[in-house]
Amino acid sequence: QVQLVESGGGLVQAGGSLRLSCAASGSRFSSNTMGWYRQAPGKQRELVAVMTSGGSTNYADSVKGRFTISRDNAKNTVYLQMNSLKPEDTAVYYCNLVVTITITSYWGQGTQVTVSS
User: Fold this and answer.
1) Concatenated DSSP letters for 40-76?
2) pLDDT the model gives residue 77
3) What is the DSSP string of 72-98?
4) Were both Cys, which of 33, 73, 81, 93 would link to 68 (CB 3.0–4.6 Å)?
5) Checking DSSP bridges between strand 32-39 and strand 10-13, what pairing results, if any?
C-alpha cells in the first residue's frame, strides 16, 4: 500500500519561503509522477507542480518563477521550494503520486500553508 507523508507546511509572512517534502513508501513501481496540488477554502483542488521520475516538470502559471519542484528518486521523495510567497498561496497542499504503468493516483493527507500579508 502506497503511503505519502508530507511535512514542511506552516505560517509565513508574504515574501517569505517554505519548503515542503513528501516521502513515498510502498510503491513497487519506480516510474511515476510525483507532485503537489493545493486547495484553498471554497476552491477546487489545483495543480501546483509535478515532476516525472525522468525529470520532466509542469508548473501552474501562478507559481512559475517562484516555486521549484525537485525529487530524490533514491529516497522516493519530492520537494517543493516555495519562494516569494503571496497571501493567495494560502491553501492545503497535497502530495500526489501517479504510477505510470497503472495510472493509479495516491494522495497525502495534506499540509497547511498560510501566508500572512
Assistant:
1) -TTS--EEEEEEETTS-EEE-GGGTTTEEEEEEGGGT
2) 95
3) EGGGTEEEEEE-S--GGG-EEEEEEEE
4) 81
5) unpaired
| Alpha-carbon span 13 to 23, nearest angstrom | 26
Residue 89 has phi, psi (to 5 degrees) of -80, -5
Per the CB < 8 A criterion, the answer to whether 3 and 105 are in contact is no
**9, 18 Cβ separation under 8 angstroms:** yes
Instruction: Find, among 97, 62, 93, 91, the residue nearest to 80 by Cα.
Output: 93
